[in-house]
Structure prediction request, 292 residues.
Amino acid sequence: MVSQGYNDRLTRSAEVALIYDLHTHSNASDGILSPEALVSRAKQRGVTHLALTDHDTVQGLQSARQQAALEDLVLIDGIELSCVWAGRGIHVVGLNIDPESAELQSAIAAQKEAREMRAIEIGRRLEKAGIRGALEGAQKLAGEAVLGRPHFARFLVAEGHVNNIAGAFKQYLGAGKLGDVKHRWPDIAEVTAIIVQAGGVPVLAHPAKYELTRTKLRELLAEFKACGGLAVEVISGQQPPNETETMAGMANLFGLHASCGSDFHVPDQPWQELGGFSDLPSGCTPVWQLWH
Prediction:
C-alpha cells in the first residue's frame, strides 16, 4: 500500500524533481534486497539521489553504483558505523565517503572482527538455551554480508522458534535478552574522525530511536558537533510531525545540517519505505549542500 505522504512526494517531484533518501540498507549488511534491487526499487519509488549506508561495510557500493548508472539515479557512497556515547550504542552515517580510504578500511576490518566475536557469543548463548546450530545457521543466511543479529532472527524464524522477526528480538535478541551481547564499539569521536578522514560527512543517525531525554539529546549533539559531526537525521522514515519539528530545532540549535532517510531494510514496511517520508522543514539546511 502506497502512503498518501508518498503520493504527495510524487506530486511535488514534478516541481522540485529531486528526492533524497540518504539512509538505506542492502543484503551486504542486514537488509533483504541486493544492492541492484535496492537501486531499482528506489528508482520506482521516485528517489533521485540514494545513499547506500550498510552497517560497517562498503561491500555493496560497487554493484549499487553500476545499477544506478543504468537507472539514471545518483548513488551517494555511504556507510553506517556503530559506536558508543555515554555507554549507549549510537550509529553515525557517513555520506559521500571515499570507500577506498585506508582509515575507513581499517575501521571496517575492526568492526567486522567485533561483530564476528559477538556472533560467536550469541551462538554460544543460544546453544546453551537449547537452540542448536544458531551460529552456523545465521552465517549461512548472511552469506558474504556482515553478520548481525537480524541473521540470527531469521534463523530463529526459519527453525520455528519464533513466529516472526519482531518475536525473535522480543524473546531472544533484544535489549536485556539472552542474545543481547554488548559490543566494545569505538567511541563516537573516533568514528566521526574516521568518516571525516574518508572525506565524508558524519551524520548522527535516527536520534529519536535512542529514547533520550531532551537534555541528554542536547548533550549528545553538542559532543557530536564538537568532535566533527556535521549533520543530524531530522527525518528517519515516517515519523510524527512534532518529532520532525523537535529534530529540526535541534539541528538549527547546534548549527548542524539536516539529513533525511528511510532507514530501509525490508520491502513492504511503509514506515521505512524508500523515499516514503515527508520533506525536510523549510528552516533546515539540507546536508547535500555540503557536497554540491
In short: Residues 102-128 form the longest helix (27 residues). Strands lie at 20-24, 49-52, 74-85, 88-95, 201-204, 231-236, 257-261. Residues 24 and 264 are 5 Å apart (CA to CA).
